[in-house]
Amino acid sequence: MLFNTQIPRTVVTAMALSTTLSGAAGAGPGAASEIEDRLGQYEARFNSADPKAISRLFDEDVIYYGPLGQVFEGREAVEQRYRNSFEAGFTDMEVTTLEIEVRGDTAWDIARYTIKDPSGKPLSGYHLAILERVDGEWLVQRTLVNAVMPQPPQ
Question: How much of the chain, in percent, has pLDDT values that exceed 70?
């Protein structure tokens, strides 16, 4: 695919995904259950503080958009991102699945997460992950994570 330098790559990726999703047939409930299981694996691997195991949930060429505006490209960068989080003292993740949509070998999920920061204070946010079934395994291709900010006083 040729990229027009005037159009951000993320826009082109979103347009391509939209075209793929709109033309693909939906998959059965088994695929959604597999993705739900992957989210459970993510939570368990985080709570085991195992950045290598977490990174294996992501494709080699993943692009991970972090909650503070960072962009991590590739599985190794994602592994290092989690290693840094654990070294900083982030712990105790809980993941609640909000939506899963499967279209053939492509899917997306939206989930809410909570973790404890290094001082033990709970933090929360949401993630959107785009997954692809690769050799029978659902791998995250792109993910966008945000953090819920406190509302300003009214």
Answer: 81
Alpha carbons 91 and 117: distance in angstroms, whole number: 7
pLDDT-derived band of residue 152, with 50, 70 and 90 as boundaries? confident
Q: Cβ(122)–Cβ(145) under 8 Å?
A: no
- What's the gap between Cα 128 and its chain centre? 6
Please tell me whether residue 85 adopts helix, strand or coil conformation: helix
Of the candidates 56, 48, 30, 57, the one whose C-alpha atom is nearest the C-alpha of residue 111 is 57
Hey, what are 142's tokens?
């792109």
Residue keyed to tokens 């998959």: 27
Alpha-carbon span 129 to 124, nearest angstrom: 16
- The tokens describing 119, both together, are 């001082």
Q: How many CA atoms lie within 13 A of 115 on its CB side?
A: 24
| Residue 6 dihedral angles phi and psi, to the nearest 5° | -85, -15
Amino acid at 122: P
Question: Mind listing the pLDDT tens digit for each residue in 59-95?
Answer: 999 999 999 999 999 999 999 999 999 999 999 999 9
pTM (two decimals): 0.79
